[in-house]
Amino acid sequence: MSPYFLVQQWLFIKTILIFAFFFIGLSDKLQAQVNYQLLHKNALVADLHNDALYSKIKGNNIESELKYSQFDLVAMRNGGVDVQFFAVWPDPNQFNTISPYQQAVAMIDSFDAVLQRQSDKMAKALNQQNILDIISTGKTAACLGLEGGEALENNLERINYFYKRGVRYIGLTWNNSLVWASSARDESSRYWKGKKGLGSFGRLVVERMNELGIMIDLAHAGEQTFYDVVRHSTKPVIVSHSSIYSICPHYRNLKDDQIRALAKNDGVLFINFFPGYLVKGFDKVYRNARKQADVIQDSLKMIEDHAPFNRAQFIHHRIDSLYPGVSVVVDHIEYVINLVGEDYVGLGSDYCGMAIPPAGLENVSKLPNITRELLRRGYTEETIKKILGGNFMRVFKQVTHSE
Question: Distances in Å between the alpha carbon of 75 and those of 173, 354, 361?
């Protein structure tokens, strides 16, 4: 046999081996793709916070597929969401014309109207068993969370009313403090002169919520309020949409000792997707970019013939170096796991409540990308299912009552 023939034979075998390894590698990648999609589909997925109801009040039809929206019901189902909490947020800018209580009632009425029209796709859930029953029929379990204690208007009976209407968590404050609970924004401001922490009426609120079976949400609560509530509550508390202070030192985020206290309380931190809470310095750079864009737009109005100005492109160019993707969201999830374990973290997207979402999580339909990233980092299916919804279901069962 000639050397030439042997060389040709070896080259042929080598080519076959290269193709074999290529297809094996491709098969592994395809398998991984199928695995994350299948895992996401089979997991119970819960998102603890969005502002879609407020978006609807402002005129957006969240029941239809919206091209540029962060959330609509079609995208929600495409994102595999089994449990969605809709925030009831009374807008402080409207308090002079319509009270926070009236605003909250109107938003809940709107929510119930949507459920009536979408009864083949969604149903209101009040406890863990409701959720399991609803998703077993292929529907999404829709839940309500009240964002801001203003709606109580210092009346404990309002808590009973909201409970009967289906509210299953109440955020004690929004950014503005109440006389009975201080907010994170105010507590962190050197100009604020109010009293920090939970007041006497605030303690009554906590007791009534514990009694009824409503989760206490501390997402916007000040640090002193946080610790006062954790000490006073007889049930686990939640933080529905915040992130990690050690990664991004923003007043809306939780410090390590708070996360430890939350875990000791058996509560859960649900990670917010807003880049301003994910990346150090992003919030300031983004706000400055928007101001610069406004100045340019105003200047161009005075010029008759001017080059077109793409505001969104200008802002994106300014924030490009800090703009986070899916991996940064998972960094925040992973931080909690490394600090206190896998039982105390979940998802609280804040869709429709943030100006700009991370790359790869542009809207709720992209949630499977979190599952893919967790799988890529080597987390087990059991751990991933806890993060996606299992931890929420545990705390929801511990707090709420079966009816």
Answer: 29, 17, 12
Query: Over the range 41-78, which residues count as b (16 or more CB within 10 Å of their CB) and which as e?
Result: eebbbbbbbbbbbbbbbeebebeeebeebbbbbbbbbb
Tens digit of pLDDT for each residue in 242-285?
Answer: 999 999 999 999 999 999 999 999 999 999 999 999 999 998 88
Is residue 11 in some structural domain? no
Q: Flag whether 34 is in a domain.
A: no
CB-based contacts of 94: which residues, under 8 Å, 6+ apart? Answer: 103
Rounded CA-CA distance 351/344 in Å is 21
Instruction: Report if residue 326 sits inside a domain.
Output: yes
CATH label of the domain that carries residue 96: 3.20.20.140
| Number of Cβ atoms within 10 Å of the Cβ of 299 | 11
Q: How far is CA 362 from CA 112, 140, 255, 266, in A?
A: 27, 21, 27, 31
Which of these, 355, 167, 210, 176, lies nearest to 274 by C-alpha position? Answer: 355
